[in-house]
């Protein structure tokens, strides 16, 4: 039992150290400096921000919408208009069943988005076909595009206006960092960003 406890402790310390390595460095403040103005503009102009991803990234997309849409409210000032395209199960399954899974996000964007809105793509590998298709559609529709990835960035890295690539080859540490970015942006807009104008 003691050997098991020691093994768990060693593994835990190693995992935490590796996660720290994935979130340390200049890339995070540089990413913040690029993303914050885009989201501030979207809030000020009443634009919509669309979040999407698969698997764990879908969970992060939903989580981000809750945090950004609720935790950043300041008095009766302007709010973020954000939508998780992963949350509409009916639309997701209809497009996947009637067309193909590769268009489940792009087709929703065609219904909901307009020029000046923001597409926020989350993909650990950066190579998910439905994410890349949605980004392609978003750019054609003149949306600003932001992509979070890891594992070298994949094709998403060069497909978006703002690319944030977590410096890790671990999907778990990449997803850890994506959630940290979600919380970092939320905390910034709650605590530090200029107060929004009245809606």
How does this model look, in words?
This protein is an alpha/beta fold. The chain has a single domain, classed as Rossmann fold (3-Layer(aba) Sandwich), CATH 3.40.50.10490. The chain contains seven helices and five strands; from the N terminus they run H-H-E-H-E-H-H-E-H-E-E-H. The protein has helices spanning 2-23, 27-45, 56-71, 89-98, 106-112, 129-140, 171-191, and strands at 48-53, 81-84, 118-122, 144-149, 162-165. A five-stranded parallel beta sheet has the order 2-1-3-4-5, with helices on both faces. Helix 3 (56-71) links the parallel strand 1 (48-53) and strand 2. Helix 5 runs parallel beside helix 6. The longest helix has 22 residues, at 2-23. The radius of gyration is 18 Å and the shape is globular. The termini are far apart. The model has no long low-confidence stretch (mean pLDDT 95).
Could you list some keywords that capture this structure?
199 residues; alpha/beta; Rossmann fold; five-stranded parallel sheet; 7 helices; 5 strands; 54% helix
Give the beta-strand count.
Answer: 5
Poorly predicted runs are none
Spatial extent as radius of gyration: 18 Å
Briefly note the structural class of the backbone.
alpha/beta
* Termini gap: 60 Å
Largest sheet: 5 strands, parallel
Multimeric state: single chain
Task: Provide the CATH superfamily.
Answer: Glucose-6-phosphate isomerase like protein, domain 1
Number of self-contained structural domains: 1
Average of per-residue pLDDT values: 95
The CATH class label is Alpha Beta
Separate helix tally: 7
């Amino acid at each position: 039992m003691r050997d098991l406890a020691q093994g768990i402790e060693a593994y835990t310390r190693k995992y935490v150290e590796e996660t720290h390595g994935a979130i340390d460095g200049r890339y995070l403040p540089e990413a913040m400096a690029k993303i914050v103005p885009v989201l501030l503009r979207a809030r000020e102009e009443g634009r919509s921000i669309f979040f999407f991803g698969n698997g764990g990234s879908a969970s992060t997309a939903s989580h981000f919408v809750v945090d950004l849409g609720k935790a950043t409210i300041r008095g009766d000032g302007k709010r973020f208009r954000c939508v998780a395209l992963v949350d509409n199960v009916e639309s997701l399954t209809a497009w996947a069943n009637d067309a193909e899974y590769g268009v489940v996000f792009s087709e929703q964007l065609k219904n909901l988005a307009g020029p000046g809105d923001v597409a926020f793509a989350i993909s650990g590998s950066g190579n998910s076909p439905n994410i890349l298709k949605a980004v392609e559609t978003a750019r054609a529709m003149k949306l600003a595009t932001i992509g979070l990835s890891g594992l070298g960035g994949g094709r998403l890295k060069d497909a978006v206006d703002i690319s944030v690539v977590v410096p890790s080859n671990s999907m778990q540490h990449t997803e850890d960092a994506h959630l940290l970015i979600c919380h970092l942006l939320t905390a910034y807009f709650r605590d530090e960003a200029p107060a929004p104008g009245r809606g």
